[in-house]
Structures are given as C-alpha cells and as structure tokens.
Amino acid sequence: MKETEEKIVQVSHGWNSLFLALLLLAGAITLLVAAPIPLKIAAAISIPVILLLLLGLFTVQPNEARVLLLFGNYRGTELRSGFFWANPFLTKTRISRRARNFDSEKLKVNDKRGNPIEISAVVVWRVEDTAKASFDVDDYAHFVRVQSESALRHLANDYAYDHGEEDDESPTEFTLRSSTEEVSEALKSQLSIRLEKAGVAIEEARLNHLAYAPEIASAMLKRQQASAIIAARQKIVHGAVSMVELAIRGLEANQVVHLDDERKAAMVSNLLVVLCSDNDAQPVINTGSLYT
C-alpha cells in the first residue's frame, strides 16, 4: 500500500474574506431594493453565490489541523491556528494534534519463562502526520488501541517477570519488574514502529500494572519471600563471621586471654549462635574456673 504524503498548505485569512463578502452582500441587497430591474436580477443571483462563499470560512484551534479534500482528492493540511477561508467546496476535516492518553486493559499473558502474568500500560500519543492518520488507516484511534495491546503482549513474551534461580549467572538480564526504564523504552520503540504507518508519534509508554496471575500469585510470593530470607541470612552470616574474626584477633593482640584451638572453636561456635540467632541470647555466667 502506498503511503500518503502530508502536504502543508496555507489558505487565505478569514477576516479579509469575511469583510469582502459582507461588503458584496450589502451591495447586492442595496441593488435589490433600489436598482432597476436588470440590476435587481443580477443582485438576486449574486446573493446565493455570496452566501455560498461564506461557507468557506472556518477556524483552526491551537494544536489542531484541518485536512482539505476537494471531491475526494487530498489538497493539503492547514496547520496554522486562526480564522481562515478556503474554497467552500472543500471538505475540511478536523484532526486533533493534542497529546492523548491510552490506558490499556489488564492483559493476561505469559512472560518469557511461560509464567502467566497480568500487565497493562499507559501510552501517551499524538497525531504527527495528518495525511497518514486520515487516509492510511480506517480509524487511527482504534488502530492505536489494537497495536498498543499487541505490542504489550509481545513485550511480555520477550522479558521475564523477575530474576529466577537460573539467572544467578546472568543477574544483569532485564526483567519486567526490576528494569522499568529499559522495558518502557522497549515498549515505546515497538509502538513507534507499529504506529508510524498511522502518522502517530509516541510521547511516552510505561507499565502501570504488573502482577502474577491469581493462580500462581501465592506460590510466587512464597518463592520471593524465601529468596529474601536467604539473602538476609547470607548477609547476617557474613557479618557474624567478620565480627567473630575481629573479636578473636582483638583478644589475642591485647593478650587478654590465650585460647587453644579447642576453646577457640567453642568460642567461635557460641558467638555465631548468638549473632545469627533469631532470638535474644540468654547468657550463662560461669563463676568457676576459666575452663569449667
């Protein structure tokens, strides 16, 4: 299909045309009242013509355009805002060039790993090429809606919802949940390609809802909680080992007490239990000898 090229035209200003038409109309009415019969006939014929010319007046608001057609042939687009006059036989179709929001419905799709998820997005778009929007698609607003949902489904299939256990070797992989900027840019790029044929420009595209499907949400929540607990335990153990090592080095450096390997192992075990336990420590005071 051959794409339509937008042609920018500049028609006449409306105030001059309005003043001239009103002046001619006033003259014709005067002749109709006071002139001889031949002039009255000419005036009577000219009045409908003058009224027809007045139908060529139209306005264009800011961030709007008028697509001009003459008997089905595209003549151009008036992008300026103001009051204008053009051939009254021209069809002047109004097209808004203002930014619009499209909030997609929640779609149930599978992510890259096959997990069912719910996803939706907000797309900010506007008409950039009035000719393509008018003639290359049947309904550009409906076209935006259908293509946006299609691009969203394709995006969900390209990314995983979140990092899984298999991502330990490649933690830099982009995911829907953690890579917001990258995913938004990918969605915007896909939409720009799909909607270019409709003359639509994408200003912004972002996910506004992302969740696991209800049938797996509970299981995935438990997996996320388990991962969080494991990560927290690893950090606690790492800190506890550092503290035990620091304590033993301090005791030996200051010659506070001398511990053999067996007692040192017992001390390490006790300190790790205290530092890594979920419950508060219950100390037992030894009032006997050092090794009793």
Keywords:
292 residues, alpha+beta, Tetrahydropterin Synthase, Chain A, 3 domains, four-stranded antiparallel sheet, three-stranded antiparallel sheet, 7 helices, 10 strands, rod-shaped
Note down, in words, how this protein is organized:
- The protein folds into three domains: 12-96, no CATH class; 100-212, Tetrahydropterin Synthase, Chain A; 223-276, no CATH class.
- It is 47% helix and 22% strand.
- It contains seven helices and ten strands.
- It has helices spanning 14-34, 37-54, 130-135, 140-158, 180-195, 214-253, 261-276; strands spanning 12-13, 57-60, 64-70, 73-78, 82-85, 90-96, 100-103, 107-110, 116-127, 200-212.
- The strands form three sheets. Strands 7, 8, 9 and 10 form a four-stranded antiparallel beta sheet that branches.
- Helix 1 (14-34) packs antiparallel against helix 2 (37-54).
- The model has no long low-confidence stretch (mean pLDDT 85).
The CATH C-level class name of the largest domain: Alpha Beta
Task: Kindly identify the CATH topology of the largest domain.
Answer: Tetrahydropterin Synthase, Chain A
Class by alpha and beta content? alpha+beta
Distance between the termini: 94 Å
Instruction: Report the C-alpha radius of gyration, rounded.
Output: 38 Å
The overall pLDDT, averaged over residues, is 85
- Uncertain residue ranges: none
- At the fourth level of CATH, the homologous superfamily of the largest domain is Band 7 domain
Question: How many domains is the backbone divided into?
Answer: 3
Largest sheet: 4 strands, antiparallel
Order of helices and strands: EHHEEEEEEEEHHHEHH
Shape: rod-shaped
- What share of the residues lie within helices? 40-55%
